[in-house]
Specification:
mainly alpha; DNA polymerase, domain 1; hpI Integrase, Chain A; 2 domains; three-stranded antiparallel beta sheet; about 55% helix
Length: about 300
């Protein structure tokens, strides 16, 4: 019975909520762990059962992981209520752990530009790596979004990129002229590469076998070139953070950045973008009426 309900819940997330395969697998793992912990069916679980599960989680995983697992469980119980498997439940009242709002790792502009320009050579793999880094930093894409791009998603004439984000939401992201130049060069090398393999594939980023590049491989590419520059702790999302932060520091408004990142809520964008106090003070001095008012002249006497 539990497996049937779990399968129905995952189908609901896929068909009605448009959750990605990666998210569905994470939800399944989290819920299977919770169901194995319970001594009875989930419909009969009480608040004390869920609290006990959370307590044992806190002994071995981070607060952020606890929050993610608790979110999956609460979504599951909302589904049970919506579909009539439950009439009421107190389990939704359990609060999640308080999470620290750590600032994300962000590269400086010089570091980001150096990283993007690190891949050497004009062969297929070198140009592919350069194109991949351009998409992560130049367009602020998630790793999965970059690896999921198809040839038809590119419109280099008008410098636009169609991206399928979380929940299968589509958005249009502008491309810079340098990114377009790199992509044009890569597309030419990509065609010659596929011709040599006598293969066809409409995924934009390919591996050495002419197959779609995986997110794991993209992570390794970013880490390899970052290590060349002596940069540690750099992964694809760091380039996305840097994209958003550098735009904001250059004067872009938060709402536009939200659209380019594909966030459904502005509060999510605020967590991706942060500024030091000195920059905020300079923005205030340039823009606020109280800062723009003439400073009083002191008497010299």
């Amino acid at each position: 019975m539990c497996e049937d309900i779990l399968r129905a819940f995952l189908s609901y997330l896929k068909d009605e909520k448009n959750y990605s395969g990666h998210t569905l697998r994470a939800y399944r793992r989290d819920l299977e762990e919770y169901l194995a912990f319970l001594s009875g069916p989930p419909e009969e679980a009480e608040l004390s059962d869920l609290r006990a599960f959370v307590i044992q989680l806190r002994r071995r995983v981070s607060p952020r992981t606890v929050a993610r697992k608790l979110s999956a469980i609460k979504s599951f119980y909302r589904f049970l209520l919506r579909k009539g498997f439950l009439r009421e439940t107190t389990l939704l009242a359990l609060p999640g752990p308080r999470l620290s709002r750590d600032l994300p790792r962000v590269l400086t502009v010089d570091e980001a530009l150096a990283l993007v320009e690190t891949p050497p050579g004009k062969d297929f793999l070198g140009l592919r790596d350069r194109a991949a880094l351009e998409l992560l930093y130049g367009a602020g894409l998630r790793a999965a979004e970059a690896c999921g791009l198809r040839l038809g998603d590119l419109n280099l004439e008008v410098r636009l990129l169609r991206v399928r984000g979380k929940g299968r939401r589509e958005r249009l992201v502008p491309l810079g002229r340098k990114s377009v130049a790199v992509l044009r060069e890569y597309l030419s090398a990509r065609k010659s590469f596929l011709d040599s393999l006598q293969r066809e594939n409409d995924h934009l980023l390919l591996n050495c076998r002419g197959e779609p590049l995986s997110t794991r491989s993209l992570q390794r590419i970013v880490k390899r070139y970052a290590s060349v520059l002596g940069l540690s702790g750099v992964h694809p999302h760091v380039l996305r953070h840097s994209f958003a932060t550098h735009l904001l520091e250059s004067g872009a408004d938060l709402r536009s950045i939200q659209e380019m990142l594909g966030h459904s809520r502005l509060t999510t964008t605020e967590r991706y973008t942060h500024l030091d106090f000195g920059h905020l003070a300079r923005v205030y001095d340039r823009a606020h009426p109280r800062a723009l008012a003439k400073k009083p002249q002191c008497d010299k006497d």
